[in-house]
Amino acid sequence: MQNIDSYVEKNKDRFINELIELLKIPSVSADSAYKKDVLKTADIIKKSLEKAGCDHVEICETDGYPIVYGEKIIDKNLPTVLVYGHYDVQPADPIGLWTSPPFEPVIKKTELHPEGAIYARGACDDKGQMYMHVKAMEFMTETNQLPCNVKFMIEGEEEVGSVNLSKFVKNNQEKLKNDVILISDTGMISKDTPSITTGLRGLSYVEVEVTGPNRDLHSGLYGGAVANPINVLTKMIASLHDENNHITIPGFYDKVENLSDEERAQMAKAPFSLDNYKKAIDIDDVYGEKGYTTNERNSIRPTLDVNGIWGGYTGEGAKTVIASKAYAKISMRLVPHQDWEDITKLFKNHFESIAPKGVKVLVKPHHGGQGYVTPIDSIGYQAASKAYEDTFGKTPIPQRSGGSIPIVALFEQELKSKTILMGFGLDSDAIHSPNEHFGVWNYLKGISTIPLFYKYFTELSK
Amino acid sequence: MQNIDSYVEKNKDRFINELIELLKIPSVSADSAYKKDVLKTADIIKKSLEKAGCDHVEICETDGYPIVYGEKIIDKNLPTVLVYGHYDVQPADPIGLWTSPPFEPVIKKTELHPEGAIYARGACDDKGQMYMHVKAMEFMTETNQLPCNVKFMIEGEEEVGSVNLSKFVKNNQEKLKNDVILISDTGMISKDTPSITTGLRGLSYVEVEVTGPNRDLHSGLYGGAVANPINVLTKMIASLHDENNHITIPGFYDKVENLSDEERAQMAKAPFSLDNYKKAIDIDDVYGEKGYTTNERNSIRPTLDVNGIWGGYTGEGAKTVIASKAYAKISMRLVPHQDWEDITKLFKNHFESIAPKGVKVLVKPHHGGQGYVTPIDSIGYQAASKAYEDTFGKTPIPQRSGGSIPIVALFEQELKSKTILMGFGLDSDAIHSPNEHFGVWNYLKGISTIPLFYKYFTELSK
């Protein structure tokens, strides 16, 4: 393709400023207090797709937040790429730990990002990575180099489970017909080691509630004589892992695919420094399932983590009380073949079964999704690989991610096409954490790499 | 004594209204947001003691909230009763569970309290019970029947550990010199079964903090590969009790006094219905240390309860995060001979020792106090017993309470005198809980019983 680099160089300030404007809007889908902002963001995405050259852009209403759809069909006989991304973001809390306000984007230079990185909630996940595709589209239409058909589907509920997107996909199979799905919502190994994500973990997210006495009690008068819901909850949660950090829920591992020694040996070749890993998050040692490496623990193995816990008196000072209720939010990351709905049922049955007398236990399933694996011999993967080779001068490494994009498995099931995960973020971008950021270099590199995927995918499809 | 009943009957509406005014002020000592209200309450107590006939009343400043002191010395050769109480209250949360605002007192009739009960934070603990003594004093001075000397010491930090009261007592032994200490900050078995508290449990209150990674992490990218502070905290807390609900901290039981079978048989005679106990707090079964009854578990046995726990995302919806930190407030109720400072050290050393690699653990001691036992053959106990006999027509039952009034052990140590615990509250008063209340009948019964203690104590002292 002609003059990608010069086009990006000429327009980079505008690309950055447009993204910064987008990041100023707190489109937090998990908290209804931000409803107006989420809707406002959808409108901005619509306009940006029109400006980028899409012929037909619409806001598709759902039972939740709308899906922004846009397309440009240049020739029915040419292949069609469906771009998926999301315009909603994770909650920003704990706000206190941000070094600059989460919705007042600033560019800071860091050791890893001498060109600067944009600090804001959603900078990388996924506004920044999603917007790379909008700008790549703009380049291809502005320079009359769009080689195939394009469809955009940008949703606003990815961070809360994409419930309404699932319905939308099931009900719009013809509209969404495509030859390959392209997503940038993952990362790469490092700035000089590009990688393509070939696997994603599934997810089951539940909330549990333990109720003891019908009111908070004085811990002196009742302490030791009635079940304390917080103590009970800690015992129940603790029992979900054994001494080797295996998950104890009966049947949990039944469908887990065990990789061959050869596959594990392949994985082990990816460059990885345990010392840097520990230093980056300031821990003196890693922790996890016995018999697996850190990279295996967070990619090919399922997990169970408490994401939040609360109960009793959490204010200033001391209160000698036995709380009536205790709560926890628990998520399980699943590997391919583990069905998230089956796992959710297994969790619910097991958790309810281990409740001691004297308490009542309620398990509320939140949301979930299936895991996913993509073969590296597909046209889509090959096209992506060649694109990275052109812009990075290196063949990208196939890599399984520990993260989840539940919708990917559904895409394959409903739309019968494979998804290619071209991620330009880094593990250090602190997505879902305070001080999330996205390197300016990564952002621009994505914009200049994506069009080459279209070129090679069209060529290889002939 | 003359016309106690007629005096109480004539003035009961005023007695109730004065208490209601006192209860309107949110004197929450644990939360600095209420500082002004706590100080305002101290002033009101000062004025009430002056009106009740104390000669010399003063607000004694401390490093924290002031202590209100008042006295009436009628004859150096007569015995002196030191009345202790507190004007601070527990925090009111969870506010949402109150059926009426905690600081807008209302009188409601209930099955147990056909005469009505005053609903407000502090109604029983301890504003209501403390104010009974002020009104009893008023009666004795108004009717010229005060038989001995009286000193009042009303503090504002009982709910946060009485740290400054301890210093005050140590530095004012002459001023506080007395022959017996009288406190109403406990309960009785039931309206028709008066009881005198002969034992109190000690307390050690700590806050723990578990720190994992230096920032919140994405649970997909890091889940399973790093220690999750919340999961770790639940495992650590769960390990503090074994399968028989014995506390596992090494040395924890070393100094626990084991009661003789005879003493336990005596205790077992106190009227108690396990069915009513369970029904009152809506639990299907009790829970506690193996080998002990419910009444033993919450009086003669030490306990460990989590009073609050928090960490990670606790807002609406879902957030897939591994928190950097998790916290818990933990209190241990101790029995006589367990030294609270030793137990706090044992806890700290043990809790830090069981922390797995990959996390840092911090244990912050909050406050504490020693347990206490009073003999039933003392003049003070006998005087209290006779007072109850007069007003209830029954001999009160000696009973050990599971609660703690840490300052009582210190009184004995510093002032060399015994404390008599004349409580008029009921377990169902919901102290420390939403909808705390105090029966009007109990309040007035206390006012008419207390002067008789002065009478008999003075007679028996001759």
UniProtKB/TrEMBL annotation, chains A, B:
Residues 199-358 form the Peptidase M20 dimerisation domain. It holds the Pfam family M20_dimer. SUPFAM superfamilies: Bacterial exopeptidase dimerisation domain (SSF55031), Zn-dependent exopeptidases (SSF53187). InterPro entries: Bact_exopeptidase_dim_dom, Cyt/Met_Dipeptidase, Peptidase_M20, Peptidase_M20_dimer. Keywords: Hydrolase, Metal-binding, Protease. Transmembrane segments: none annotated. One of its GO terms (molecular function) is peptidase activity. This is Acetylornithine deacetylase/succinyl-diaminopimelate desuccinylase-like protein.
